[in-house]
Amino acid sequence: MPGVHKVLDPTTLAGCNLAYGQLPSVVLAGQHRDSARNLQEPLMELRTHEIVLCGDRILLRPMTESDWDILIVWNSDPDVIFFTEGTRTPYSPEDIKGIYEETSQNAFCFVIEYQGRAIGECWLQRTNIEALLKRHPNMDSRRIDLMIGEKDLWGKGLGTDVIHTLTRFGFERERADIIYGVASCDNPRSWRAFQKVGYRIEAERDGDYDMMLTRREFGTQARNLASTESQQRAEQSRPRAQRRPSRWESR
Fold it and tell me: What is the model's pTM?
């Protein structure tokens, strides 16, 4: 499947201690990651977990209270929040904490690491956008959100790796029916990253593309990729005399 990373079995990757939990059944009322906490509601703590996921190049570890400093730095950078929120006005540290604390109640929140360095955050949450839920009622719908906070690593393909890793987790372990990604129409780097993992544009809504992938589609893509890789391995294992030489090989 063009543009999709090699399918790996996360349970066999060295250094990855994988454990899977369950999300609570509550669905949040807010629609966007920038929904600040209602100050009249009781305060909540960041809900954490013990899940670690390995991609081809990135590692996703649980987000914890010890990550507040770096999360506040990323969410205070006008360039970073412009591509995640569509605004250059940073939030206060209190609002930043409130957003993550509220989101975590209904999501698996991770910090993205690359070569041992924290470079961003992401989560897989139950879909909380009414327009998306109405399209596919009675289906387990999830949504991926991510931020690469270290700007020197933009355009390196790490976001695609994050999306692929969370997508596998959502379908293979959480057994979601549909996974969405919401990307600004003005941010081609974002929606193209979803397309590389097989997502398609389901609809345009309020200046955003609703990127969608179903479990059936994901399974078909994975099988096609596995078949292609199997054929390539079989071809490579044949004695050279039995193989059709490539244009670069001497005949």
Answer: 0.76
